[in-house]
Amino acid sequence: MKIEIKTEILPLRGLPLINFGDTIEDVESILGKPEETLMLEDIEERTLPAMVYLYWNSCLTFFFSTLEEKPFLIMIETDDLNAQLLDEKIFKMKPKQLIALLSGQKLFDFEKEQERHEIRYTWDEWNIDFYFDGDKLSTVNWSAQLDDTGHVVIPEEPFKW
Predict the structure, then answer these.
(1) Cα radius of gyration rounded to whole Å, the chain
(2) Taking the model in full, what pTM does it have?
(3) Could you give the number of structural domains in the chain?
């Protein structure tokens, strides 16, 4: 059974009905089967091998770590124009507005990196990346916090804003 979910970004947690650490079956029980799947191999040092589930109609992509016997959710990516973070529609924001929004959460340290025509803003404290094409946000991805053994650590307290 497929459920429509709101793309509310919950840093280090996931989405309102889907948590980092959930299995493929957990996600499928909420969203149904994906429109497309693919396997990512360990291409770069920073990339874990992952099974990727693409839900084109929901503008969501889920990355499941395949290092364990039972794959589990480690990252989500969206280009949903209605996606929200901290109750704000972030795809309407320019980089300066986004920086101000996160500074309001006392997140002052971020990394800015240009890759060809795209600029990536990263806040490591929340494991979140924002990709801009000029002043237009194109994609957001956020990931789980992993412990030393590679298991997901969900913060005990939800973020307050």
Answers:
(1) 15
(2) 0.91
(3) 1
